[in-house]
Write a structure and sequence with these properties.
alpha/beta, six-stranded mixed β-sheet, 11 helices, about 45% helix, globular, binds ligand L24GHEU4, fatty-acyl-CoA binding
Length: about 325
Amino acid sequence: ATEGPCNTPKPGVFDLISKAKWDAWNALGSLPKETARQNYVDLVSSLSSSLKSSGQLEPGADGTPPGYETLVVTSEDGITKITLNRPTKKNAMNTQMYHEITLALEAASKDNSSITVLTGSGDYYSSGNDLTNFTDIPSGGVEEKAKNSAILLRNFVGCFIDFPKPLIAVVNGPAVGIAVTTLGLFDAVYSTDRATFHTPFSHLGLSPEGCSSYTFPKIMSPSKAAEMLIFGKKLTAREACTQGLVTEVFPDGTFQKEVWTRLKAYAKLPANAMRISKEVIRNKEKEKLHAVNAEECSVLQERWLSDECMNAVVSFLSRKAKL
Ligand SMILES: CCCCC/C=C/CC(=O)SCCNC(=O)CCNC(=O)[C@H](O)C(C)(C)COP(=O)(O)OP(=O)(O)OC[C@H]1O[C@@H](n2cnc3c(N)ncnc32)[C@H](O)[C@@H]1OP(=O)(O)O
């Protein structure tokens, strides 16, 4: 687009990057500059429209924060509260919700609040991955779907790993799958006694994500983690607390009042001190967690293509199976 057809000498065989660029340029033959420019503009326009259709949000024209379809985000008393808001679907996480949580966390990391809270609306915290996510197959087929999902999941979990402020889960009801595994990346987890914690990965032909293959054995012991992550044992809130996944359990009747009173008090603590303490506690682990996240996503990319997984999804969608 800037220089016209390729007229420079071919780079040496060991200069792999320059050679790949030269090959791509040379393959365009005598394409005129103007056409190349137009092709470039068309490509970028198509990417930006596919980002919009894939659910990525843009700020308003005046730079105000984006509106969310699957979340309610509020900020008061020094607390940014991100509420999963698909109560009729038990707050199952669809593709839009993964994108929106990522955006909401990015915004919360830069706003004036001192702590950030994730919670659910309705009777569930979240039923985990929305199993209908697997029905929206792109033109590249199931392999492309698996690849895109692995990228989405890696970015999503990466935001939790890198989140710089105290991050608290207010678990208002049962939690399933990825809604459970990511709890290992929070700084505190407060739960109603009505909640349960369930990671039915083997039942679904899946494998652990959310860095749980690393955080759960550390938090609760390898064998307790195996009971959850391999055998799908569902824990009560009290069991999850005994095993260290949950910080404290409250009676359902007084849960909201007790938790928010405590969080408002915490939010008054000096924000920089809390941020720095988190950094000191978490930074040693960050590199490891990103490596674990990458490995888990690549294993899952394969799992999603397995008969075991596909059969489990079909079973759920045809109403033959529930947890
Ligand atoms: C980018 C991709 C990343 C992928 C990351 C991978 C993550 C792994 C996981 O998270 S594994 C966990 C997956 N979750 C499940 O298997 C839960 C499936 N849901 C159920 O088993 C049940 O719905 C229930 C036990 C959570 C609740 O049962 P209950 O009888 O109380 O309620 P309903 O079944 O009637 O649910 C109400 C409506 O909500 C829909 N729904 C609930 N959960 C999900 C879900 N996870 N995915 C899709 N849809 C869900 C349910 O179908 C009902 O819809 P309807 O009213 O239209 O019938």
